[in-house]
Specification:
This protein is of the alpha/beta class. The chain is built from 25 helices and 27 strands. Strands 12, 13, 14, 15, 16, 17, 24 and 25 form an eight-stranded mixed sheet that branches. The chain has a seven-stranded mixed sheet with strand order 3-2-1-4-5-10-11, with helices on both faces. It has a four-stranded parallel sheet with strand order 7-8-6-9, sandwiched between helices. Strand 7, helix 9 and strand 8 form a beta-alpha-beta unit. Helix 1 packs parallel to helix 11 and helix 4 packs across helix 12. The longest helix is centred in the C-terminal third of the chain and has 24 residues. It starts with a strand and ends in a 33-residue tail after the last helix. Pfam families: PFK. Homo- and heterotetramers. Its main location: cytoplasm. Pathway: Carbohydrate degradation; glycolysis; D-glyceraldehyde 3-phosphate and glycerone phosphate from D-glucose: step 3/4.
Amino acid sequence: MYVHSLVCMWVFHCMDGLKCRGSINYTGVFQLEMKLTLILSVSGMNAAVRATVRVGLYTGAKVFFVHEGYQGLVDGGDNIRPATWESVSMMLQLGGTVIGSARCKDFQTREGRLKAALNLVKRGITNLCVIGGDGSLTGANQFRTEWSGLLGELISKGKITAEEAKCASHLNIVGMVGSIDNDFCGTDMTIGTDSALHRIVEVVDSITTTAQSHQRAFILEVMGRHCGYLALVTALSCGADWVFIPEMPPDDGWEDHLCRRLMETRNRGSRLNVIIVAEGAMGRDGKPITCDQIKELVTKRLGYDTRATILGHVQRGGTPSAFDRILGSRMGVEAVMALLEATPDTPACVVSLSGNQAVRLPLMECVQVTKDVTIAMKEGKYDEAVKLRGKSFENNWNTYKLLAHVHLPETKSNINVAVLNVGAPCAGMNAAVRAAVRIGIIQGHSMLAVHDGFEGLAQGKIESITWNSVGGWTGKGGSVLGTKRTLPAKHIEEISLNIAKYNIHALVIIGGFEAFSGGLELVHARQKYEELCIPLVVIPATVSNNVPGSDFSIGADTALNTITSTCDRIKQSAAGTKRRVFIIETMGGYCGYLATMSGLAAGADAAYIFEEKFNIRDLEVNVEHLVEKMKTTVKRGLILRNENSNANYTTDFIFNLYSEEGKGIFDCRKNVLGHMQQGGTPTPFDRNFATKMGAKSVLWLTEKLKECYRHGRIFANSQDSACVLGMRKRGLMFQPLTELKEQTDFEHRIPRTAWWLKLRPILKILAKYKINLDTSEHTHMEHIISKRTPVTLSGKMKE
């Protein structure tokens, strides 16, 4: 019987892609011309390789590595090797690619592709998982397109039999996108982008300290020859004065505008200027805009001490971020599912990320829209180019324009908006405050800072906060305003009096579950205190990620990276000593988000959480699993436990149990990570997320205030005047606090449902547990449509 097999390829990503021109005739022969420019690898791809291999083996498929990309596919031999469970161990923390990548001129020829087809057929391989950029994926799709013609030629040359050709009658292809540029349309994030942002922001943080000391202007060039995503998000993450991206060249006369902007920043009291340049930045005339050109301009016109730095390939290397590891793992699982569900009529697809959802899109539709971006830029249709990049890119650009293209209003709105932090501190809170304050000032409002949360609001710790007050806050951890867990119910009268005294018209409450609960208490008190009838918005910010109404909270990504990097070090220690199991306790209260997601990112053997009940038999199964694992070449174990997962099965209990049962087989160590998870510099994700949330909250309050203005005063008592701003599946949305009340477990301070619980089976499968994977919820093929492309590329397109 013929056995389905998978090939997990690491394939190069071409900056210019594979330029294809040709025609298809009825014999299936495709005349193809390809232009190859560069071969690249990115952090996070090993996570995708690991997940593809292990889930493929879990489903009963044979899985092969193709070493050295398409060159290995053409050369065959030892380049195509069976993959085993253990062969993908200790890969998660490694950057680059463990199975290699290489230039391949041979695959550009018909003869080369014929050799590749022969190597696949002889090994009974009919499913191909390609990890790379649009060039690699386009090449794979063309290989699939001419597959029947290649089989026919191999039969005619006597290299394969008719029976072999029948068994390999069609080739299924699924792609995962790996590119630090995030230049592939159809996905919000490509694997490797977040890790690259980590490298960039680390450099920017280091540069800003010296720039501030010496009152310098710094120009930083980041990668992005055709896409400005890295430059744009970096600008948002560090509060840059200006960003140059290829999708939106500056208007003519930008030199005067730039110099005026830099002077205005200095006149407001800033001691530094930061300018971010994408390597593909250009003017409206199509000529490149370089770091040296900008440096010369700033030095000559303004006389500022100016430095330029080009980051180069440092952006591609390093340890993958937690986000990229989880993204790669999720995409790897989805890729295997897509291959196993594919039919001969299924178009080649790419697995993508839309908001928080894994989606499948026809590969060539995505490639076409990606090409359409380049066409739009060449035609000078820059607004269209930004839209074609997708909602995520467009939202980032709009937020940047709001915060950077500043024209402070001459007239005030007579509106006072107060901002406060509530609950435990977390990284990213300050970025949200900064964005809220500055957008409020741009709207003409007077912004008020409340120190020490609701307690400070009751005690009158309220003062005006200005544009300069929040300068440099984006990269600061903790809470500059101060934050406490105190809820407002006990101080409701004092709070209402101070709201009246300071004439506060709206509240921005940034915090965790206490912010959510406190917001509800203010809403319930409206019946008695008319002063509380003002619009308010809650922005989730907590490492626990337990605020109802949002899939993500500000600060959770930073905490997740802290845990993951600690687990990497611990695993490295265990790998050196052999036969050692570490039990790690994470924060999160009763919410198991951190334990589960860090388990995925670090490759844990188990993660104990409150939401998924466990008993002594489950603990016994885990111990038995580790005993068996110690018989393999992977002689180490990593167990994560959420701090409140079980009142009786404590970290000490589990440590003692494992130590006793593992005697003579493995020894144990335990580590309680504690408050180090709340501190640290915010990650690029948290900075960007917080900035967009802070900006969006104040814009929403501005519109809500207009609706609530009656008879010369603000009066807001409707349910939709007090909302949580949260990320739900594919976008940011406002949800009334009172509606979310029914979805909340107040005793344990968690939402009643959580999206990430569906990822727990993946954690167990990747740890080699024999469980049943629920595939009742299929990810259906969706479509991405370019308004520039009315013709169908692959099947029927939806309008």
